[in-house]
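Re: beginner question about structure tokens

> Can someone show what the tokenized structure looks like for a real chain? I only ever see the sequence side.

Sure, here's an example I had lying around. Input first:
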Amino acid sequence: MRMDRLMLSRFARFSVEFGQCLEEGERKVYGAGLLSSFGELEYSMSSEPQLREFDPFDAGKQNYPITTYQPLYYVAKSFQDAQ
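And the corresponding structure tokens:
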């Protein structure tokens, strides 16, 4: 049960908080954590972080830092795919 909660919290971190998606081939953000932090929003759209295709199971296994900008963001093929 604890592992299920941990995976769910990681999934939420990479989707609800720091989610990105493609819209007409252009990367957009929808995550509340990105939309509330101009610094991280700008960083997330730069060439610095690693980008991966959104996979909820992979996101659920991925660790993340809480004191620095995210080194990794998941990008869904569309906003509909992210839902």
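Each token stands for a local structural state, so reading them left to right follows the chain. The CA atoms of residues 41 and 69 lie 9 Å apart.
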